[in-house]
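User: My collaborator and I are trying to settle a disagreement about how two of our proteins should look. Neither of us wants to argue from intuition anymore, so we agreed to look at predicted structures for both before our next call. Could you fold the first one, then the second, and keep them clearly separated?

Assistant: That sounds like a sensible way to settle it. I'll keep them separate. The first protein:
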Amino acid sequence: MKVLVTGASGLLGSSVARVLAERGDDVSVFQRRPSGVPSVAELPGDVTDPDAVAAAVTGHDAVVHLAARVAVTGPWSSFASVNIDGTRNVIDAVRAARAARLVYVSSPSVAHHGRALVGAGSDPADPARARGHYSRSKAVGELLALAADDARVAVVAVRPHLVWGPGDTRLIAPILKRAQAGRLALIDHGAALVDSTYVTNAAEAIVAALDRADAVHGRSFVISNGQPRTIAELVTRICQAAGLPAPRLRVPYPLAAVAGDLVGTLWTVLGRDDPPLTRFLAEQLATAHWFDQRQTREVLGWTPRVDLDEGFSRLAAHLRGARPREPRC
C-alpha cells in the first residue's frame, strides 16, 4: 500500500512508519518536524492546516492518523484545534482523495470515567465523561473518525495503552529524571494493577488493524501487552533498567489528588505543559487499568511479540548505550 502516517516524529508514530517501510509499503510521513525514519518520504506540515493535509493525503491508499496534542494541562482550544479540528481535516482529505482506509490512533482514556478498569473491553468513547482536555478531545476525534466509516472508507480506531520503549520521552524519561533527583514517589503503595504496551507491539497492532480494516471497520480496539503489573513493579523495573534504586517515597492518594489540583492549576496559569502531578495523573497512578485482550488478538490476528521481560532488557541496553562513557586516564 501507499500509506501516509501523521505524527511520525513521536515514539509510536515513528515505529509505525518504520514497520510499514520495512515490510515494503510506500510510506510518507506528515508532521511539523522531521521523523528521522529511514526510507520514507517526509511531508512537513501541520494537521491544523486543511490545505497541507489535503496535499499530503492525495495519492495515498491509506492513512494512519497519530498526530495529536498530548499533554495533561493547557487550554481546551489548544487540544480542540489539533485533536478535533485536525482529525476533521484528515477525514475530509481522506474522503476527497478517495483513500480506502483510515486508522485513527486513540487512547483508552476516551472511555475512562475515573473508576477502575478490570478486564475491560473497548467501551464507546464518551467525551462527556472522559477525564481532562486530552481525553475529551481524543474521544470527540474518535467519534468523528468512526462516524466517517462507510462503503468508501474503512475506518478503525486503535487505543494503545501506556506505550513505552527505548527513546520514550513521555513516560520513561520523566520517571528517570525524578528518580535521579530523589523525588520519585508512589501513590499509596503503588498496588494498582495496570497494563502497558511495548512500542513495537503497539505499532504492529496498528498495522494489523490497517491490514484488516475491510473486515473490522467501524470498531475500536484497546491494545496492550496483556501482562498487567502493579505500578510499583513497573516503576521499579524502569529504575532498575537505568541502574537506579526503586522509589521509597509514598504519598497517600487524597493528598496526591489535592496537590494535583493545585499543581495542575498553577502550570495552566503559567502556560507550561507536563506538570509533575495533576489530579488526573494521581487517579491514573492509584487506579487499576487492565484489559481483556482475547477478542482483540483474535479479530486483528495479532499477538505481541515482545513481552515485558524482553522489553525491559531492551530498555536497559538502550539506556546503557545512551550514557556518556567515563573518560579514560
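The second protein, kept apart from the first:
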Amino acid sequence: MEVTIPAAGGEIPAYLALPPSGDPEPGVIVVHDMFGMTQDLRNQADWLASAGFLAVAPDLFHGRTKMACVRAVRRDVVARQGRTFDDVESVRSWLAGRRECTGTVGVIGFCMGGGLALVLAFGRGFAASSVNYGSAPKGACDEGLLVGGCPIVASYGAKDRSLRGAAHRLERLLAGAGVTHDVKEYPGAGHGFLNDHKGAHDPLPAVFTLMGTFMRYGYDERSAEDARRRIVSFFDAHMRPGRAQATREGGDAPG
C-alpha cells in the first residue's frame, strides 16, 4: 500500500508491504537504486513481506530531481549526515513504532542504496543490513569506522566491472572490524542482478543501456534466488533468532 511518512524535510512517499501472518514481525527498510521509486522496488518489498517481514520502501528522492538526489545522497554518505540520514531515521522510527512491527528493524539496499545500507549498518539502530552491489565513497567506511556495526550480508556480481574486488575488500574490512558478515560474489552475475526492472516494466533512462554494457547490468535469476535465500536466512538469524533456531532444528518456526 502507498503511505506517507512524516519527516522534518517534508512527508516521505513510501510503499508498505505487510507480511501474511498478521502478527508483529521484524521490519525492513528497502532502499532504492539510482532509479528511485520503481515497480521493481515495490516488488522487492513484496518479496520481503512474503518472507515474513514488514517492509517499507521510501522514496528518498522525494521533492528533488533524480540526478540532484544521487549527488546529494553521495555527499551525505561521505559526511555520514544530512537529509538522507534524517529521512531514513524518520522511516526507521515510524516503522519500529507500528503495531505490525516487533520493534526490530533491518535495512536492505541496491546499488546506490547498497552503499547507503553499508553506512547505515554502523550506529543507526539497525539489527541487520543487506548490501547488494553497493559501495561507499572512499573514507566513508574505513576499518576504524566499522567497529560495532550490525551484522551484514552482502552480494556482488563477478562480471560487474565497476566493482571489481569489492566483495573481497568488504569481507577483509568487516573481518578486521569484527563485524558478523556473509559476503558472496556470484560468478555468473553482473551489476543489478537482483533488480528485475525489465520484468517490472519500469521506464528507465537511456543510460541504462550504457550501464548494461560496462557493468554487465541485468537481472540474473539463478544468482538472485540464491542471494534472496541468504538474505532471508541472515535476517531471520539476526532479527528473530528463535525462528532461525527452530528452522535449524527442523521444527516449525513460530508465527
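Some points you might bring to the call about the second protein. The two ends are 23 Å apart (CA to CA). Strands lie at 2-5, 12-17, 25-31, 54-58, 101-110, 129-132, 152-157, 181-186.
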